[in-house]
Design goal:
- The structure holds 2 protein chains of 2 kinds.
- Helices cover 20% and strands 12% of the residues of chain A.
- By secondary structure, chain A is of the alpha/beta class.
- Chain A starts with a helix and ends in a 10-residue tail after the last strand.
- The longest helix of chain A is centred in the N-terminal third of the chain and has 14 residues.
- In chain A, a hairpin with a 5-residue loop joins strand 2 and strand 3.
- The radius of gyration of chain A is 26 Å and the shape is globular.
- A 6-stranded mixed sheet of chain A has the order 12-14-13-16-11-15. A 3-stranded parallel sheet of chain A has the order 5-6-7, with no helix packed on it. Chain A has a 3-stranded antiparallel sheet with strand order 8-9-10.
- In chain A, helix 10 packs antiparallel against helix 11.
- Chain A has 15 helices and 17 strands.
- Chain B is of the alpha+beta class.
- Chain B is 18% helix and 20% strand.
- The radius of gyration of chain B is 18 Å and the shape is globular.
- Chain B starts with 5 loop residues before the first strand and ends in a 7-residue tail after the last helix.
- The chains are: A alpha/beta, B alpha+beta.
- The interface between A and B is large, with 42 and 39 residues.
Amino acid sequence: MIKSLAHEMGMMGREHSIELPIAWTDVFGNEHKTVKGNPVAFHAMRGLAAHSNGFQSIRALSILMTLLGTIDVPGGFRHKAPYPKHIPPFPTPPNHPDAVQPNTPLAGSPLGWPASPDDLFVDDEGNPVRIDKGFSWEHPLSVHGLLHNVITNAWRGDPYHIDTLFIFMANLAWNSSMNTMQTRDMLKDKQANGEYKIPFIIVSDAFQSEMVEFADLVLPDTTYLERHDVMSMLDRPISEYDGPMDSVRIPILPPKGECRPFQEVIVELAGRLKLPVFMQADGQRKYKNYPDFILNYETEPGSGIGFLSGWRGRDGEKSMQGEPNPKQWEMYEKNNCYFHHKIPPEHQYLRNVNKGYLEWAKKLGFIKSVEPITIQLYSEVLQHFRLAAQGKRAGRKPPSHLRKRIETYFDPLPFYYEPLEVQLSDKNKYPLNAITQRPMAMYHSWDSQNAWLRQIHTHNYLFVNTKTASENGIKDDDWIWIESMHGKVRCMCRLTEAVEPGTVWTWNAIGKARGTWGLTNRANESTKGFLLNHLISEELPQQEGMGHLSNSDPVTGQAGWYDVRVRIYKADEETPKETWPQCESPKTPPGVKKRTGLWQQYFAGKGKFK
Amino acid sequence: MKKKQLALAIDLNVCVGCHACVTSCKQWNTSGSAGPLADKRPYDEDPTGTFFNRVQTYEVGEYPHTQVVHFPKSCLHCEDPPCVPVCPTGASYKRKEDGIVLVDYDKCIGCGYCSWACPWGVREMDEKNKVMTKCTLCVDRVYDEALPESERKPACVLACPTNARFFGDINDPASEIAQAIQENDGYQLMPEWETNPSNYYFSRKNKAYDAMTGKDEAAS
């Protein structure tokens, strides 16, 4: 298979070149009559990033495409605005505890791209400042943060205790956490004096999820159907290869009861906290609500660049840049809720060295300079960290227990290594890899328990290769145990030919805790559904002198969801025909009605669903 | 020229099994002429309900030469529909003007003969309302002049994110669907059952798979 793929890449890369009659000018002033490319591109998505060697693996694939000459050429791996960006991109995160002062807004961005040890968010001893230990020596380039460690760190008080945990749309008492059952215990654990270790928990959710049970304060959220949203050019827009594209959601139903879109809560909080961006010079609030904030916010006063790039200017006559337009939401709505700006063909290729493109991108603030964006085969950023670990660089040095780790994994050239947890696993005792994926029918559904979707997937199975199953005496629909070094789960098994013999897998987020999400205690999601999360730890097994290390990529802090090793065996005949572990059904909160009717029928425009 | 026959053609090369056709069908038709499509035990054990369109998933071959095929299935609007002659009340009928097979819910007594006669298992007894229901090819959309012409298609066709579904008159050689069937060697299910299905499928053609299984010697 690997040989056949390599052959195809080579053949396509060398012998099937594409040449388009598009004249363009490079950043050095050379004029080209055509643009040439090869039909080879590949995209590493969630699978590789969920291994603790994901960063270097994906970097290797990107470099392979670079060497094949297929970056942003016809048929190749194409850029989408606002990318490409220079390495390192801007901004950088805060780099010292002094940057955070009580009752004072942060001076810069809370997030960013560290380019060297001097950009890490650590104290004078090199210890982490953030509760998730993001941007610390443990995971220096953790641009996405380490949400999977927040509860454990706060519970242990490492690096410190917190007084409030505020969670939006992350089901951390269930499928968003590794080590689910112990995480649930941490959320309700108490100190010797009887106080909770995590004293106050706020949860914003549109449904009665597992996390809501642990909340001191619930902020009832709306669904996407009841609120405004943007997929903004300032964040992660839906751009196409031929130019930037962004989009919005417009509410099609009024919110129910006292539900409030979480965005409105955030804008309201920002106003009450008097954060500078949300204040006028006279101390009055600048934005009355979220739609108003989206319309009128500009990156700098008068920059003409805001969240949405379409229909800017007083009358909506400008694209990409222009003063705020009071009718912008209506104009998006008329255009099916998106805006697409096509750039001229001569700017659509080799954008990292395309003169016209770079000048245009700089004007819009995508990049800071029109210098060529050089692809780094050898990563200077990684080498800064490695030199620091080797003591060959002035400035910050990693704490001694992390020196070897930084030196090993911050290799400026990509390399393969066994994922960290696998290195520490007994592969004879636990011979199988275990992974999950989201069912396609529920891909972007927070509410997979709704009456129609739950008929598509009501519970999950562990999928096991037929040969692997028969070696273990397991047949279709048998009740089995899956066991890792961290815990075990009882579930039903399905034999399959569509997975390799050394890997088992299941659908994620089908299993639910008993009595949650408005389902009855008998719902299949809790009696037959299960999570693999119980088998996965948020921390690596303890190693002498290493402290508590997250089960994550040592470069980026991306969670090692796919690194767990397991074994499977048949459950005894006398074990209950029910998944394990089980949770007690939570008490029904006041004002919540259980839906227990035998029949449900929707009819648009009639009755209570009008 | 042959009589008009509206139908679907489904490209199994591009169907990814996302079920968008299933839920969009339910959404449109629950508010349609059949009345609401009921769901039984919607939030309890073993929920079940009426869906006109379902996706079945099959594995083909043995590891490592395995393919997973997602197979959307709804009424095939057969030329010779065995569900029609067995109906004791005349509720089940095939429209002369466009070949759509429908049920007249006012005449249906819910006896279920038609579902016994249908070899495809695509009739759906609505347990709550005690009538037989089925895919209508969104007959209440496709002729609706209040809709823009581009939307006069079944809900499933409009919802498909990979454009795996085609709709139109299979007997009009100039139609998009007829041409797609021609170009993709579209086939009918089980011709030996002699129902002459109007819906067509396009079978898997997978170069990479052929290379992997040795069918394509040049690339192996």
